[in-house]
Known about the structure:
Layout: E1 5-8, H1 18-33, E2 37-42, H2 54-64, E3 74-75, H3 80-92, E4 96-99, H4 103-109, E5 113-114, E6 117-118, E7 135-138, E8 145-149, E9 153-157, H5 159-162, E10 167-169, H6 177-187, E11 192-196, H7 203-212, E12 219-223, H8 248-258, H9 268-287
Parallel strand pairs: 1-2, 1-11, 2-3, 11-12
Antiparallel strand pairs: 4-7, 5-6, 7-10, 8-9
The protein binds zinc ion.
Amino acid sequence: xxxxxxxxxxxxxxxxxxxxxxxxLASWLDARAHNGRWLVRIEDVDLPRCPAGxxxxxxxxxxxxxxxxxxxxQWQSRRGALYAAALAQLVEQGHAYGCACTRAQIAAHxxxxxxxxxxxxxxxxxxxxxxxxxxxxxxxxxxxxxWFDRRLGPQSQDVQQAVGDFVLRRADGIDAYQLAxxxxxxxxxxxxxxxxxxxxxxxxxxxxxxxxxxxxTLRYLHTPLVLGLDxxxxxxxxxxxxxxxxxxxxxxxxxxxxxxxxxxxRIPAEVLAAGVKAWRGMIAxxxxxxxxxxxxxxxxxxxxx
Length: 305
Ligand SMILES: [Zn+2]
């Protein structure tokens, strides 16, 4: 088994807020608790949506909280050649195909929608009939993707039924998030993904892509979401404030408390040291069958570090 390598992968559409700090802290704690490495990847593949300077602000916020990556950060916007190579491999092996459909054409033929998105009806599976290719899609099949989440337990999804043949490269030429994440996780040697529960639903698509590309499947832990006043996931859209850097220790304690950890400490170094100890305790407790009901994290390596 490779040594533990974890990552935090923010999209720089806005500064870190209370919700994204929870995900950052959880991924850092899990890596440290396993004596692993922790990397940061800026997920700016959709560059037009990322205001200039937000990446630097996020890295500064992380640093002020004592969350410093073990290698220089990576930017997805600079890694297009890797995604192009992966897409070419999928096309060559018959796992991906070109799609000529416009949104209106998909809407005319789709029979299902999900989270407001139409499930692609597979129109171009056997060719575009001479129409020019706009986007590239993964050819899914009806075999359910079963996987295990360290907090949520066994999961399964029939990707074809749930999301259909999903996009790998968009009609505007931008590589899809799913493809970029899978390629980057493999290329960076990531073994463990710890991220917010809003991304749980993406995991079966990413596991399917890993299999199609002949890449290892990772271990996953999806952390509880921080909700805004409207009951939705905290986000820039519902008014999440950037974390307060005047007292990073307090911001970390608040994030830890959302993970079920009551931590002592004033400055980040003290809070983080207490956090690693508490996180290890949580893993050990789970191993002994006394895991806290709200947040339980089985040890991915199968042994207490
Ligand atoms: Zn199509």
